[in-house]
Write a structure and sequence with these properties.
single chain, 69 residues, alpha+beta, three-stranded antiparallel beta sheet
């Protein structure tokens, strides 16, 4: 899971994306659309994902991070 930014017109947007395999091919799907890009939020979200992945590795019943609080 990672944060991806994309540009549309003059604006940049953020998405949380997951990579997965299907029939031997690597694919990606957007899990959450987070709205317009803000540097501070982008960094916070990246850190939250890293922390959650550490917890998830230790506890398979971990919940996804809460975004926007």
């Amino acid at each position: 899971m990672f944060v991806r930014t994309n540009k549309s017109g003059n604006n940049r947007y953020m998405n949380i994306v997951e990579s997965y395999r299907e029939k031997g091919s690597v694919k990606q799907r957007v899990l959450w659309s987070l709205g317009k890009y803000e540097e501070k939020r982008y960094k916070e979200i990246k850190e939250n994902i890293k922390e959650w992945e550490k917890i998830e590795g230790a506890d398979e019943s971990a919940s996804p991070p809460v975004i926007g609080e």
